[in-house]
């Protein structure tokens, strides 16, 4: 009996404190099904990029290392247009960036208000009363991936969609765009669901711990409630839908029995969304693994073919908007990109026939440098599969390459075949996490991955049921607080007398 009483106390206390939060999670989750958090995808990014104008350009890449202090290991160099001028962006292995004007080789100066408007006006029509402001972050740019670009220039276009654009002060490029529709609905959806309040989210460790413990407490509340509900059913003399409660308590009990298991699974998988290596391995490659995949950091000696010579062998139907210089397996490559799908890969070591993407053999040899284990299998993933797939919330480049290793952790290496980028190292722990988080939380399972509309309809119905069920918990929690306040000694007896004004004693 004391165990049951303890479970009841835990459920009542935590439920009173967290019922409103869980209700909000269900409501915001329903919105998140249809309006994802704003994100600048590759297709949108290329729409805003202007074609490269390389007349009288550029400072040879091999001279950049001598003209600018580059004390850190270089991972990649990109070339594109910003403010009407070509820009080199140097990506270091530690995640930092450095921008330089490619026509003169000097460090990128601060993007002015005029530069920002000029950059955004290229090839686009919108109101002439655009405004620009400098900011560090807001709810749409508080994520740490924007740290190398801060401070940001926010451009309000004042167009029909209420578009707002964010430009990097480091590189001059567009890094985020939002519309009024996205901002309104994402405030009710993603911002609320993930507790993306800038004051909390900009302190990553504090935000991580806060959301993790709230999800853990919510899970304890749901599990304890489900246990109590089952106990009540077992003592109901075999009547399946019988409940000894009346009123809202009855509906809360029956609702918990109907959807309690789903609530528990969602809170459990939501807790796993904040795992970040606590229980399961992380799939993101480390800086050391990326450098091994490259075959060493990028250096001037890796450039055997000057950029201008390489472009003379280029054949693309559309204008080039971005050029990448990267290193894979000890060899350097140019990637000329017109958009997210049209590109040409060319060796930067010596002139050879270009290709549309990196070859499987090239990437497989580079993967051997990351881990020395035997490669059991390697396969192209042109359309994605159960472990490498793209969704509206988590876009992944296609096609991808999977290399299966014969190591103790049964590691799978995933590589972007378009840019030759090492995407992830997924071991057996990571594959279990994929099912426990993505499988349980967003239902990324075989049937629903191919039928997204049906998936969202089912999840919307469950979110609605969970919302109503949690709302009954909010009502019961408020009722309990009211009852406790009425029984409180502060509102009765001597405490109540203390709150009343004292009457003066009559003079005798």
Outline the structure in words.
By secondary structure, this protein is α+β, with helices and mostly antiparallel strands. It has a six-stranded antiparallel beta sheet with strand order 3-2-1-8-9-10. Strands 4-5-6-7 form a four-stranded antiparallel beta sheet. The protein has a four-stranded antiparallel beta sheet with strand order 11-12-13-14. The protein is elongated and about 85 Å long. The termini are far apart.
Q: What would a concise description of this structure say?
A:
It is built from 15 helices and 14 strands.
Task: Provide the helix percentage.
Answer: 40-55%
Spatial arrangement of strands, main beta sheet:
3-2-1-8-9-10
Question: What shape does the CA trace take?
Answer: elongated
Pairing-aware structural class of the strands and helices? alpha+beta
């Amino acid at each position: 009996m004391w165990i049951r009483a303890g479970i009841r106390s835990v459920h009542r206390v935590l439920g009173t404190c967290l019922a409103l939060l869980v209700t909000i999670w269900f409501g915001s989750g329903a919105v998140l099904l249809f309006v994802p958090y704003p994100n600048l995808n590759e297709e949108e990014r290329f729409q805003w990029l202007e074609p490269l104008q390389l007349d009288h350009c550029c400072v040879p890449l091999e001279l950049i290392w001598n003209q600018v202090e580059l004390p850190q290991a270089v991972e990649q160099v990109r070339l594109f247009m910003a403010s009407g001028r070509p820009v080199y962006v140097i990506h270091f292995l530690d995640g930092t960036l450095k921008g330089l004007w490619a026509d003169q080789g000097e460090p990128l100066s601060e993007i002015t208000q005029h530069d920002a408007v000029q950059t955004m006006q290229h090839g686009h029509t919108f109101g002439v009363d655009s405004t620009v402001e400098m900011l560090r972050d807001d709810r749409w740019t508080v994520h740490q991936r924007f740290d190398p670009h801060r401070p940001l220039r926010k451009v309000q276009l004042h167009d029909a969609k209420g578009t707002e654009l964010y430009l990097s002060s480091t590189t001059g490029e567009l890094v985020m765009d939002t519309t009024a529709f996205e901002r309104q609905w994402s405030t009710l959806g993603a911002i609320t669901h993930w507790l993306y309040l800038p004051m909390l989210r900009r302190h990553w460790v504090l935000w991580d711990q806060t959301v993790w413990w709230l999800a853990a407490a919510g899970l304890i509340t749901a599990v304890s409630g489900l246990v109590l509900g089952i106990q009540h059913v077992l003592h109901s003399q075999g009547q399946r839908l019988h409940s000894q409660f009346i009123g809202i308590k009855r509906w809360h009990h029956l609702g918990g029995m109907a959807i309690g298991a789903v609530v528990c699974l969602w809170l459990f998988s939501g807790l796993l969304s904040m795992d970040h290596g606590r229980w399961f391995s992380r799939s993101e490659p480390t800086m050391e693994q990326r450098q091994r995949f490259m075959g060493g950091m990028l250096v001037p000696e890796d450039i055997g073919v000057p950029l201008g010579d390489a472009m003379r062998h280029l054949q693309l139907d559309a204008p080039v908007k971005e050029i990448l210089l990267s290193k894979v397996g000890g060899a350097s490559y140019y990637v000329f990109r017109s958009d997210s799908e049209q590109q040409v890969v060319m060796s930067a070591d010596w002139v050879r026939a270009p290709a549309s993407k990196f070859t499987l053999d090239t990437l497989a040899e580079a993967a051997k440098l990351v881990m020395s284990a035997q490669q059991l299998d390697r396969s192209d993933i042109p359309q994605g599969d159960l472990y490498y797939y793209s969704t509206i919330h988590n876009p992944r480049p296609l096609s991808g390459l999977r290399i299966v290793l014969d190591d103790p952790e049964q590691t799978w290496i995933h590589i972007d075949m378009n840019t030759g980028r090492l995407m992830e190292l997924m071991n057996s722990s990571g594959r279990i996490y994929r099912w426990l988080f993505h499988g349980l939380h967003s239902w990324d399972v075989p049937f629903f991955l191919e039928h997204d509309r049906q998936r969202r309809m089912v999840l919307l119905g469950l979110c609605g049921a969970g919302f109503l069920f949690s709302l009954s918990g909010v009502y019961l929690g408020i009722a309990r607080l009211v009852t406790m306040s009425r029984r409180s000694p502060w509102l009765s007896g001597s405490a109540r007398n203390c709150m009343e004004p004292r009457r003066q004693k009559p003079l005798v």
